[in-house]
Design goal:
The structure is a single chain. The protein is mainly alpha-helical and about 300 residues long. The protein has helices spanning about 30-45, 80-85, 90-100, 150-160, 175-190, 195-210, 215-220, 225-235, 240-245, 245-260, 270-305; strands at about 120, 125-130, 140-145. Strand 1 (about 120) and strand 2 (about 125-130) form a beta hairpin. The termini are far apart.
Length: about 300
């Protein structure tokens, strides 16, 4: 007897009310939940014409994509990634870290797809093949600059590569294998490994580039859109505050020097002040007496005429 699956047998059932939330296992974030159930949500529609009469995952309450989480963002500093690169002894592994942090490449899909014929040394640029966006028209590849901090590691890996090699990263390393290697060298370098390693490296690079270049240019290099970048990649970082308050450090010393250079006002000489007051009173007193005399003269003349 063959087992059958019905909508009531599914792990997640559709909420009965609009306000009812889907119960999630404790300790898991919505992102973990989406990553676990998204493959199943794609699988069941293909099985509906055989075993199922309805799709148990048709509820719109199920998250269909992994969304950015600002609480898990970590700005990967150049010092941190530099220590990891210096600690690494394999040239192509050094390059892998540089591609992730300074190139903003998705890993492992884009880093392992990179070939040497995609690197244009003469024009300082390279073509990135993007399996993730290949289904979108005109989004299967993109061209990015050979940034100085990236070119030096590309050149070192090229010099160390055997003759006739086509793959830039020759050894195949899974995502889990990369993380194990990174955790090992991070411990040796005294660096604390941050969560969401690959996503935070990519987001850190997009934040850096957006400070210098227009957003549409940066998104073309990173292979996303301004809306996606604002939602998942761009965050408020400390360098923005430093840049916003940079003029304060120059204005305060200048203001202080201006106050010091301003000459002090001389105190008034009491003797000269008394002489000036006497001269003023004498002049104005004589004027007042002269005015009173003229007034009396005019009054007397008017009386005689009357």
């Amino acid at each position: 007897m063959e087992a059958t699956i019905t909508p009531t047998d599914s792990v997640v059932t559709e909420p009965q009310t609009e306000t009812e939330e889907i119960e999630r296992p404790k300790g898991k974030t919505p992102q973990d939940y989406a990553m676990e159930f998204h493959p199943l949500a794609n699988l069941f529609p293909m099985m509906m014409d055989k075993e199922l009469t309805a799709n148990p995952f048709a509820s719109k309450k199920l998250p269909s994509t992994v969304r950015g989480n600002a609480d898990r963002f970590h700005m990967v500093t150049r010092s941190e990634i530099g220590k990891l690169i210096d600690q690494e002894t394999i040239p192509e592994m050094k390059l892998l870290l540089a591609l992730i942090r300074f190139g903003g490449l998705r890993s492992p899909s884009e880093t392992l797809s990179l070939t040497w014929d995609c690197v244009d040394w003469e024009h300082d640029r390279m073509t990135i093949i993007s399996p993730k966006t290949a289904n979108h028209e005109g989004k299967g590849s993109r061209v990015v600059p050979l940034f100085p901090e990236l070119r030096v590691h590309l050149q070192a890996a090229f010099d160390a590569a055997p003759a006739g090699a086509s793959k830039v990263i020759m050894r195949y390393i899974t995502r889990a294998g990369m993380l194990l290697r990174i955790e090992k060298i991070a411990k040796q370098a005294g660096v604390t490994v941050w969560g969401k390693f690959f996503q935070n490296c990519r987001a850190s690079r997009q934040c850096e580039l957006t400070e210098i270049y227009p957003i549409h240019v940066v998104c073309a290099w990173m292979g996303n859109s301004p809306a996606i970048a604002a939602k998942n990649y761009l965050h408020e970082i400390e360098s923005y505050f430093d840049k916003a308050t940079a003029q304060n450090a120059t204005q305060q010393p200048a203001q202080s020097n201006q106050n010091e250079a301003q000459p002090e006002k001389k105190s008034r000489n009491p003797i000269l002040a008394d002489q000036a007051r006497t001269t003023y009173n004498s002049a104005h007193g004589g004027l007042m007496q002269h005015t009173e005399h003229n007034s009396k003269t005019r009054s007397g003349s008017q009386m005689r005429k009357g």
